[in-house]
C-alpha cells in the first residue's frame, strides 16, 4: 500500500492565513480605489463649481464696466443661482441687489430673482414670508403674462413645500394638485415623479 502525503494542520492553518491575507489585501485595494474615485469625482465637482463662480464674476465685471442696469440685474441673478442651496445669505444679498436694477416690466431676470429670494425664506424656516413672496411671484407672472409653465410649476410646488413644513397638509395637497394640472400630460416625467412623491409623503404622514 502506498501512503499518500497528508497536509499537516500547520500547513492548513498557514494556507488559510495566506488566503485571508490575500483577501484583506484585495479588500484594502478596492477600498483605496473607491476612495480615490470619490476624491476624483469631488475634485471634478469642485472644478465645475469654481468654473461656474468664475463665470459669474466675469459677468459681474462686464456689467459693472458697462453700467447697464439690465446687465447688472442679470449678473446678480447668476450669482443668486450659484449660491442657491450653497449660501442663503449670499443668495439673498444678490437677489436684493439684483432687484434694485431689474426692470419690473420684464419677466427675466426679475421673476427669477424674486423666486430665489423666496427660497431663502424657506431655507431659514420663515414660511410665512416665503409664501407671501411666492404669491407675489405668481401675481407678477399674471401681470407680465409670463407663461413659462416649468417656472410656474416650480413656484406652486414650492408653496406646497412651505405649507407642508407648516403642517398644513390640505393646503400643500391643493398646491401639488395645481402644479400637476399645470404640468399636464406632456410634462417632464421627473417633475411628475417629484410631485407625486410629495403627495405620497403627505398621505403617509397625515393621520
Write up what this structure looks like.
- The protein has 207 residues and is mainly α.
- The protein has 8 helices and no strands.
- Helix 2 packs antiparallel against helix 3, helix 2 runs parallel beside helix 4 and helix 5 runs antiparallel to helix 6.
- The radius of gyration is 28 Å and the shape is globular.
- The relative contact order is 0.06.
- The N terminus is likely disordered.
Keywords:
8 helices, disordered N terminus, single chain, mainly alpha, 207 residues
Summarize this, please?
This protein is an all-alpha fold and 207 residues long. The protein contains 8 helices and no strands.
Topology at a glance:
Blueprint: H1 9-66, H2 69-83, H3 88-101, H4 110-124, H5 127-143, H6 149-165, H7 169-183, H8 189-205
